[in-house]
Amino acid sequence: MFQNISAQTEAVIVNAPDIVTAIDAAMLRRRDEYAGQPMAWKVFCEASHVATLCEPMRSAFINRVANERGADIALRLKAKAESIRAAVIAELA
Q1: Interatomic CA distance for residues 29 and 32, integer angstroms
Q2: 76 near 1, Cβ under 8 Å?
Q3: I want to staple 53 with a disulfide (CB 3.0 to 4.6 A). Which of 21, 57, 75, 79 is the partner?
Q4: CA-based radius of gyration for the chain
């Protein structure tokens, strides 16, 4: 119920446009890794797109995927997007 403020002393604030720019750059750098793997590239692109969205939009997108394609796919997409976003934020920090 109560937050421990002292535990958040190393919180990092990164602007959303910086995150989007870094994710776009990462996609361009990694494109060649997916040569001959169109489905893997599609998954990476979709997860990267989700990673660029603000929290309410990410949740809405994941919910729509869950309704249209199933919970398993939505959970994998969410995990991949969170991983991409976390890596970019760590890189920018």
Answers
A1: 7
A2: no
A3: 57
A4: 15
